[in-house]
């Protein structure tokens, strides 16, 4: 996806959020737990920071997919995050270590509901921390 295409898609999302309320309560950056951090990942995150501004980090939650792979390796998310490239470690620090892992291959409805509930709990806590002031508020 080109930067122009990304900007267009993000603009659409922001337009929807603004039409439904006053802004975004969270910005969820999704990455795979079984991929290495590439230059493309880093450039995309830097581009998003330019687009949203440095305030964006107050709203970021990192969501790692492929928790099933972590489970197969008998590795917790905290263990995985303790040995990541410096760019990702810095990103984690800047978003106050708001990170969650999803097993996106599970067929277990309870697991899906638990994961969703945990993400929503993180977002609710984030809203409280940010004074219930959405990002990009008008």
TrEMBL record:
Q: Transmembrane segments in this chain: where?
A: none
Nucleus keyword on record: no
Print the keywords alphabetically. Answer: GTP-binding, Nucleotide-binding
**Could you tell me which residue ranges the AIG1-type G domain spans?**
1-138
Give coiled-coil spans as residue ranges: none
State the family it belongs to.
Answer: Belongs to the TRAFAC class TrmE-Era-EngA-EngB-Septin-like GTPase superfamily. AIG1/Toc34/Toc159-like paraseptin GTPase family. IAN subfamily.
Name assigned to this protein: AIG1-type G domain-containing protein
Upper classification of the organism: Eukaryota, Metazoa, Hemichordata, Enteropneusta, Harrimaniidae
Q: Please state the gene responsible for encoding this protein.
A: LOC102810126
Q: Which residues of the full protein are shown?
A: 76 to 213 of 213
């Amino acid at each position: 996806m080109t930067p122009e295409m990304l900007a267009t898609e993000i603009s659409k999302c922001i337009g929807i959020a603004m039409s439904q309320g006053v802004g975004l309560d969270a910005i969820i950056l999704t990455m795979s737990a079984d991929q290495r951090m590439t230059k493309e990942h880093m450039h995309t995150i830097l581009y998003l920071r330019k687009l949203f501004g440095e305030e964006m980090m107050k709203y970021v939650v990192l969501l790692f997919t492929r928790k099933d792979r972590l489970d197969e390796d008998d590795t917790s998310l905290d263990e995985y995050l303790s040995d990541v490239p410096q760019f990702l470690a810095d990103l984690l620090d800047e978003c106050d270590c708001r990170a969650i892992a999803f097993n996106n291959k599970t067929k277990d409805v309870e697991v899906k509901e638990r994961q969703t509930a945990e993400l929503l709990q993180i977002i609710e806590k984030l809203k409280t921390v940010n004074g219930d002031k959405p990002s990009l508020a008008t």
